[in-house]
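Mods, move this if it's the wrong board.
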Amino acid sequence: MPSIEANLASWNRDWGHDGSDWSSAWGSTAAMWRGSVLARIAPFVPTGALLEIAPGRGRLTEHLLPLCTSYVGIDLAPACVAACRERFADVGHARFAPTDGKTLPGVDDASVDFAFSWDSLVHAAKDVLRAYVGELARVLRPGASAFVHHSNLAAFVDGDTGKLTVENPHWRDPTVSAELVRQACREHGLSCHVQELVQWGVPYHNDCFTLLQRPTDGAVPSGEPVHIEHPDLNAEAVLFRAFAQSYWLTSR
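Not the wrong board. Structure tokens:
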């Protein structure tokens, strides 16, 4: 299980790139953003105050900044915070701050219009996800939403032995599942609107995209989220890579 300490040791260093290497299936981060990310969050941007949890070295921050009037990026690794501060030093409406891995320091109650996290919290354990869901319940404005990419590997843990029944080549956390995040949303009074189970580089749903919302009336949410099972995100990546090479990069 990737602990907070293990995550800090892994990410608080020079990666040798800004994270774009992990967008290679799409051909570029821009193609990943346009094809796979923006397509999912388009109803929520542009927006006012935007929060990004674990931006890393700003791989997607670059694309988020023009879509908000104020931005805050919270990351566990001081090296990532420093890299983002340097990279986006000329962006007046952005700030970056470190976290202890469970809280959103300096983010006021009911101040965020949209929260976002991509390809980072897949390495976070269940206590971290529960804590962040609780923090989102605190910082989201009534009616505001959050898109959170997290592990679903706990769905493949044998209930009798407690052992993982599938391979884990991408260092996903085996204590987190879509169901656990759904339960955490209910516990903190959040509505879980969509859960998209994703095959990310393996032939089983090791990841999940959860779209949650803070209700406007404070009522205890009921009902089940829209449930999507994505057959293969790599195939989606290849499709948008082809689009980028044939359509998006062609000058008229």
